Amino acid sequence: MKQRWLVLIGSLLLLLHLGGVVQGESLWNDQSHSLYSNQEKVFHPGDLVTILIIEQSSATQQADSSNSEKNSLGLSTGSGLLSGFLPGLKGDWDSKYQGQGSTTRGGNIQAKITVAVKEVKPGGILCLEGQQQIKVNKERQTIRVTGNVRSKDVGINNQVLSSHIADAQIEFVGQGTVGETQNTGLLTKIFHWLF
User: Fold this and answer.
1) CA 8 to each of CA 13, 85, 136: distance values in angstroms, whole numbers, following the listed order
2) Nearest Cα to 106, choosing from 60, 38, 152, 160?
3) Domain map (residue ranges) of the chain
4) Which of 4, 50, 115, 151 maximizes the CB count within 10 A of its CB?
5) What SS3 class is residue 98?
6) d(Cα 138, Cα 122) in Å, to the nearest integer?
7) Closest by alpha carbon to 44, among 124, 150, 154?
8) What whole-number distance in Å separates Cα of residue 179 and Cα of residue 140?
9) In terms of Cα–Cα distance, which of 142, 149, 151 is closest to 170?
10) Euclidean distance between CA atoms 103 and 81, whole angstroms
């Protein structure tokens, strides 16, 4: 039994001697970005940012108006030579106007577009600009986006919502057969111009 203990202690001493010094390294270093830190990413011109365009707009305008007017006119012939031949004139008139009108307009656009950082302003403001063209069956749709966004609003996956973009200009333009049918014809334009 004593011999077993000696073999066990000798083996442990040998392992400690051969193992040397063990050092561990951290999983985090100064260059790693934590999901939980407030450290902002650094952007440079030419970097790419994906914009999630989710825009909805609606506007309603209503107008009511009314007008009424009542007038009367009386004319008598007086006491002259012709008073027996000309009867007195009387007139009453009124006019009423009532109008109502309303207009409603709305729009909805959802898209995803990757744009380039054109400039980095002081304070980490990124100037974004880019466009995307999609052509299907002679129909071409173009999405253009420009605007400014704070670098801290850009997520860890380089995505930002369009609602976080200041001075945003989002254009969605279609050209082709479907786009042409949205325009009024020449005769309709002339009719609207005349009337």
Assistant:
1) 9, 150, 77
2) 60
3) 48-57+105-185
4) 115
5) strand
6) 44
7) 124
8) 9
9) 142
10) 63
Could you count the other beta carbons within 10 Å of the beta carbon of residue 168?
A: 17
**Mean pLDDT for all residues in the chain:** 78
C-alpha span between 155 and 43 (Å, rounded): 12
| Nearest-angstrom CA–CA distance, 11 and 23 | 22
CA–CA separation, 122 vs 118, rounded Å?
14
Do the beta carbons of residue 145 and residue 128 sit within 8 Å? yes
Which residues, listed in sequence order, are joined to residue 14 by a DSSP beta bridge? Answer: none
Residue 8, pLDDT score:
77
pTM over the 0.70 mark? no
DSSP bridge pairs for 60: 104
Backbone φ and ψ of 15, nearest 5° = -65, -40
Of 35, 28, 47, 45, the residue nearest 156 (C-alpha): 35
User: What pLDDT was estimated at residue 178?
Assistant: 55
